[in-house]
Amino acid sequence: LQAGDAIPMGPGPGAALPVITLEPNRQLALGGRLDGASITWAFGLYPVDDRRTRLVSRNLGFMPGWTLRRILFRPASWRTELPMRLFLDLGGFLMVRKMLSGIKQRAERFAREREAGEAALRLSSGCE
Asked: I want to staple 33 with a disulfide (CB 3.0 to 4.6 A). Which of 38, 57, 77, 91 is the partner?
């Protein structure tokens, strides 16, 4: 993976975000623009101690004319734009939370399996 590669976010060629920057074991940032809208999604790894790392996800999206103030002062938009805005904010939060939880579970399982493998190797080689 490198800057410029596209990460699919759904079906179709327009549903991908290009990699803006990638620093292995430190950060990954995706982002793009389409029809005046823009989005960025960044992931950062922050060491906590020798055995733990915190994964942080941040995203920012902009859709021209889709401000909450504009929506609230246009009652005609309450049936369409307001529910969509609320759904995207809440839905995005829930999706990212589930994704980060899955990454955490896989990382912890990988660490346990690696530790077990290293312990078995030490025992079989007579190092313990």
From this structure: 38
C-alpha–C-alpha distance, residues 38 and 33, integer Å = 4
pTM value is 0.70
If you write DSSP's letter for every residue of 67-81 in order, what string do you get?
A: -HHHHHT-GGGTTTH
What confidence tens digit (pLDDT) does each residue in 41-92 have? 999 999 999 888 999 999 887 777 767 777 777 777 666 666 666 666 777 7
Q: Evaluate whether 41 touches 21 at the Cβ level (below 8 Å).
A: no
Number of Cβ atoms within 10 Å of the Cβ of 41:
20
Strand-strand pairing, 37-47 and 27-34: antiparallel
Q: Which residue has the tokens 């369409």?
A: 80
